[in-house]
């Protein structure tokens, strides 16, 4: 039995894919100590892992991930969290004496600790692997970075450089700007397939594309819905962070009113059902829905293009209409569209008529379903969380 320490971001999109892998490691006899914030304590402990609260610098990281979008500010927040937390984390890891460290691709402190203490490390990536090519998929990304730097101000850019220099000097590091978001190791597990990853065939053997980490989860207890009577079914959800979009839900309700489909809208807690006005009989509005179960029955998913949601939809062969709200979501949405498995829509520019027309285009074309199935096949051939756990154990036992 080995011991592993896991460092992750306080963000559902980063935590959720890792949980089945951790559960599988624990089932194989591993002891996993998982660092995150208290918001994720229950989820983490449900895997059998031991939860450890960060307590240092993570509120700023969590807030940045909620706001999203500005990579310059995110770089400053991540390096600031590393600078503040490293002395404590190094002391804690030395005390725990793990056999290996697993860290998210956006947890630079995990990589720094492993290097400083000479511990084998594994990187997990819940998004696309960022390269110049993938960033190019965002369209005009260079210009957007300049805009982000302006928005951050001289103080924001200086904070990034100051933290970078201090960490390099104190811990003997050499930090490239892109490294802050990648933190590559000798083994890198990516929760998608080589086929779906832009330029996937260009990555070396140190990158293992294991596909989405799909495992049954009880994320909406008490949910009751007659799937047999809702055919065809259109599912709408904007995820956990960006669902405060009453305007979007109202446009969708207008778009699908009277259309020959049943629509299930999961609105979260930030918008109340009564704020949406009259709900047509072919539309159901709920606070939460068990997404995996819904996608087993859906014919179309309207999503914010979060990587987890897109992965889950395509795993079940469900094409998408995508309304990206952050830069990394734009990359995902454009890749889906490039592979013919969905349509990328303007997040704010699409009116109800646009939504209705695009939905009909997808629902009435076999091509979208065939292309979604190709991605699904690539996911299922990648091995999933069981292969991820196996790769970790093989790596730490043989190097």
Automatic annotation (TrEMBL):
UniProt KW Transferase keyword: yes
Keywords linked to the UniProt accession: Transferase
Gene3D superfamilies named in the record: Glycogen Phosphorylase B
Domain of life per record: Bacteria
GO molecular function: hexosyltransferase activity; UDP-glycosyltransferase activity
Keyword Ubl conjugation annotated: no
GO BP field: antibiotic biosynthetic process
Domain Erythromycin biosynthesis protein CIII-like C-terminal: 262-379
Annotated family: Belongs to the UDP-glycosyltransferase family.
Name of the protein this chain belongs to: Glycosyltransferase, MGT family
Organism: uncultured spirochete
Lineage summary: Bacteria, Pseudomonadati, Spirochaetota, Spirochaetia, Spirochaetales
